Amino acid sequence: MSEQYDLVIIGAGPGGYVGAVRAGQLGLKTAIIEKEATLGGTCLNVGCIPSKALLDSSEHFDMARTHFEEHGIKVSGVLLDLPQMMARKDRVVKDLTKGVAYLMRKHKVNVFEGLGSIKGPNTVEVSGKDGTKTVLETKNILIATGSVPNNLPHLQFDGKRVISSTEALSLSEVPKHLIVVGGGVIGLELGSVWRRLGANVTVVEYNERLCGGMDRQTSDQLKRTLEKQGFQFMLTTKVKSARVSETGVALALESTSGEALPTLEGDVVLVAAGRKPFSEGLGLEALGIEKDKGGRILVDEHLRTKKFPNIYAVGDVIPGPMLAHKAEEEGVAVAETIAGRAGHVNYLTVPSVVYTWPEVASVGYTEEQLKEQGTEYKAGKFPFTPNGRAKAMGFTEGFVKILADKKTDRVLGVHIIGPRASDMIAEAVVVMEFGGSAEDIARSFHAHPTLSEVMREAALAVDNLSRQM
Asked: How many CB atoms sit inside 10 A of residue 183's CB?
């Protein structure tokens, strides 16, 4: 008779492994299935972590070449050692994936390597690479299989000239001209890495602005700043066809209004046109588990599939933002629900970050959303320009904008573009989780001199009380 589990998780990315840790903490007998040799999913292996490692390394390189002298540091002959940079990135990834494996052992989570498929509401089969089949019996199942890069019909990945984000993390040389198809987070971050390392970067974007769901003022500021850094943008532009050769790629372009545009040639094309859920081959169709047209699994407010209340799904494979921290909280919520606790995710306070320089971070509603839903609001905005810490750092571009309910002053959204925005946004998330007001931020101490003082000034500006303007 096969071993009986309380929970079997398919997919060991952030949603899966964090859910497994919480399940182990709650005393649930748990197993996790991963098709790759290392745990951590896309995020740790070929996504969030390696891209941030390269962003930090490329930022140091760019600073040494372009900004050290103004700080009184003279460095001559700065050279790029790309193999060493890639090796460091790989070490960071290896350390963190080993850490996930340790957490599975610590919390007594059994790990199975192979493809997981659901054979029934209480049965999961693991297909190993060697052809072996292992059947797991379980009271509950969690699908946390994540997502894969979108490909375009006329721009198929070949791993060399037409690449996905995965290959963009491991190029063996700096492209002379990198064309990025897609002006979203992935395209801008990886475009930033290779621009800093010496590539000319052109971003082709179908929409009229970058990062479509972003606050409009923030998006416009990001575009202006990246243009100063050397980015070229072709907005409202689509790719009609591609001609791939041994030496490069030629893209036939047209405007979204149908006007033919000059051919764009580059030696590498990064297709960063979003991601799609990895929901095929899981046995969902045979069980009648419902998906939407995009392949996302439909779940209720407790993250349960509609047909089977003991089969859950989280992360990129369900509707909502494709963000690691969102998946993590959903994984925790599922484990707590199974254990009889009140698992819950507040989707209004899921922050989003673009790790360009400057960084962009936001949480809650944008002005455009508030106007569309007819919510009366106040806005306070304050730039980094007069901030003492920003001046000392040598980077003062950007601003913080706080949106608050006109009657109650409750914070509805915060949008930051500037240095270390990714760290600053946490304050806004906590305030919104507690239903706090702009006045709460304005009356709270913020150490001087810090970048966080811009948050306080923006909160004061909500009621026209900023002391520096």
From this structure: 29
